[in-house]
């Protein structure tokens, strides 16, 4: 996490550049913890079942292309909450905790939810179109918030300066590393990762964050002597319409893909 932006800076040495406090409108992460609790509880229920019950549970809720075409498109959504084993949920849960905390704080609860769920559905749709194998997992949604954080630091690079550029480079490196590991694992091991879902979620998160993400500008803060605050120029009327347009387009594509 980042240092508290509301904490006044220490007094600079004589003759140095004067620093001022900047108030960032950060949200307290709450939805991330709720999502984390839901996927953990579902996984605990899943592993409590006998082997036959586990197979039936996955068959009932996983992304299975044939069943989706037969009239069960809800699987594109429900598959986002399922995980196959402990390693699977540990990886996704840790990624949700680390990345989701920052994205919810920077974007706010509503925009975080839109990116997580619409980006996750974008990943499920890409998996449905490009991968015949059944799949489960929150990876598409995780890659969506991953892409959203990259877009945020790119579009607000002047605000965050060198720290923001370093963080963006780290995010790009981790994104490429994870995608590369996914392709490598699919090519060399018996465990197949859903790279189509990863890429679909990543693209969905990038597109959503580009249009609905915060665009901060620095303004004077009358509550702090000589202080500044940042103001989001992407007003709710604008990003609400953009998210609605994305959701409508995604729904239309899903209907077409499922019924074609």
Written overview of the protein:
- The chain is mainly α and about 260 residues long.
- It is about 65% helix and about 5% strand.
- It has a single domain, classed as Rhomboid-like (Rhomboid-like fold), CATH 1.20.1540.
- A hairpin with a 7-residue loop joins strand 2 (about 215-220) and strand 3.
- It is globular, with a radius of gyration of 21 Å.
CATH topology: Rhomboid-like fold
Radius of gyration of CA atoms, rounded to a whole number: 21 Å
Strand content: under 5%
Number of domain modules: 1
Low-confidence stretches: 5-12, 186-191
How many β strands by DSSP?
Answer: 3
**CATH homologous superfamily assignment:** Rhomboid-like
Largest sheet strand order: 1-3-2
Overall 3D form: globular
Number of helices, counting only DSSP H or I runs of 4 residues or more: 10
CATH class: Mainly Alpha
Average the pLDDT over all residues and give the rounded result: 86
Structural class estimated from helices and strands: mainly alpha
CATH architecture classification name: Up-down Bundle
Q: Ends: how far apart? A: 45 Å
Largest sheet: 3 strands, mixed
- Determine the fraction of residues in helical runs and give it as a percent range: 55-70%
**Helix-strand pattern, N to C?**
EHHHHHHHHHEEH
Salient structural properties:
single chain; 260 residues; mainly alpha; Rhomboid-like fold; 3 strands; 5% strand
Topology:
Blueprint (H helix, E strand, L loop, with lengths): L21 E2 L7 H18 L2 H11 L3 H5 L5 H4 L7 H22 L1 H22 L8 H17 L1 H32 L6 H18 L3 E5 L7 E5 L3 H24 L1
